[in-house]
């Protein structure tokens, strides 16, 4: 059974600081996704990582994938308040027929 | 504009009633999914469908039913058999065969049982 673990689950940061969210998964996969969810809202796609070594960047967020370590990271650079949200990683395991397994999410709060 | 439309956004139900949540997409996606999210939790898969007239149970299908009569539509019925239906329900779609597998989500339906 594929398991996806994120850590930390809660993260309180000061504006201007850097931090990394980790996403570990338990079985072979080469497809990993990051989503953002604002309170009371739906999920918005941030990054799609489709191969080992994939790195994608958008603004202050950068995501990477290491399929050998079964690890993805979401790095936040010089955090700003607008980044406050819950971030989910999701994994598409082989044979899953497109069903993504989601982590529990990391609730990020960026304070002035 | 292409996207996924869920309705209603908010729904209140008395115990013992069935309710149906609508999900329509105009993205021409093959696959559609229903997820449930409880407060402070991740998403759990209820049902999914990869082609018309076919669907499979996800991890928490008990107490729910679906149909896929048209490619664009995947309604979810929350039956009275669902013990704890109060939750946020998210519909999603993807091109899982020919695309990246990325899920695109609707805005969600929030169901409260009174």
Kindly name the structural category of chain B.
mainly beta
Query: What oligomeric state is this?
Result: heterodimer
Please estimate the helix content of chain B: under 10%
Order of helices and strands of chain B: EEEEEEEEEEE
**Rg of chain A to the nearest angstrom?**
13 Å
Radius of gyration of chain B: 13 Å
- Supply the helix-strand structural class of chain A: mainly beta
Order of helices and strands of chain A: EEEEEEEEEEE
Count the strands of chain A? 11
Mean pLDDT of chain A: 93
Gross morphology of chain A is globular
Write up what this structure looks like.
The complex is a heterodimer of chains A (112) and B (114). Chain A is mostly beta strands and 112 residues long. Chain A is built from no helices and eleven strands. Chain A is globular. Helix content of chain B is 0%, strand content 49%. Chain B contains no helices and eleven strands. In chain B, the strands form two sheets. In chain B, strands 2, 4, 5, 6, 9, 10 and 11 form a seven-stranded mixed β-sheet that branches. In chain B, a hairpin with a 2-residue loop joins β5 and β6. The N and C termini of chain B lie far apart (36 Å). The interface between A and B is medium-sized, with 21 and 26 residues.
Please tag this protein with its features.
heterodimer; A: 112 residues; mainly beta; six-stranded mixed β-sheet; 11 strands; 55% strand; B: 114 residues; seven-stranded mixed β-sheet
Describe the secondary-structure layout.
The complex is a heterodimer of chains A (112) and B (114).
Chain A: E1 4-7, E2 10-14, E3 19-25, E4 32-37, E5 43-49, E6 55-58, E7 61-66, E8 71-76, E9 85-92, E10 100-102, E11 106-111
Parallel strand pairs in A: 2-11
Antiparallel strand pairs in A: 1-3, 3-8, 4-5, 4-9, 6-7, 7-8, 9-10, 9-11
Chain B: E1 4-7, E2 10-13, E3 19-25, E4 31-37, E5 43-51, E6 54-57, E7 64-66, E8 76-78, E9 87-94, E10 104-105, E11 109-113
Parallel strand pairs in B: 2-11
Antiparallel strand pairs in B: 1-3, 3-8, 4-5, 4-9, 5-6, 7-8, 9-10, 9-11
């Amino acid at each position: 059974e594929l398991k996806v673990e994120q850590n930390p689950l809660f993260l309180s940061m000061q504006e201007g600081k850097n931090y990394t969210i980790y996403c570990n998964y338990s079985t072979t996969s080469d497809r990993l996704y990051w989503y953002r969810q604002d309170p009371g809202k739906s999920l918005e796609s941030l990054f799609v990582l489709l191969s080992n070594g994939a790195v994608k960047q958008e603004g202050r967020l950068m995501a990477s994938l290491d399929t050998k370590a079964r690890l993805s990271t979401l790095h936040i650079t010089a955090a700003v308040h607008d980044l406050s949200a819950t971030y989910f990683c999701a994994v598409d395991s082989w044979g899953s027929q497109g069903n993504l397994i989601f982590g529990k999410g990391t609730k990020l709060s960026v304070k002035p | 504009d292409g996207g996924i439309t869920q309705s209603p956004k908010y729904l209140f139900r008395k115990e013992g009633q069935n309710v149906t949540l609508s999900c329509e997409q105009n993205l021409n996606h093959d696959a559609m999914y229903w997820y449930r999210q409880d407060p402070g939790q991740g998403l759990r898969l209820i049902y999914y469908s990869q082609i018309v007239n076919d669907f499979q149970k996800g991890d928490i299908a008990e107490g729910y039913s679906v149909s896929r009569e048209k490619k664009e539509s995947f309604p979810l019925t929350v039956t009275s058999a669902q013990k704890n239906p109060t939750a946020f329900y998210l519909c999603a779609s993807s091109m899982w065969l020919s695309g990246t597998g990325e899920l695109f989500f609707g805005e969600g339906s929030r169901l409260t049982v009174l």
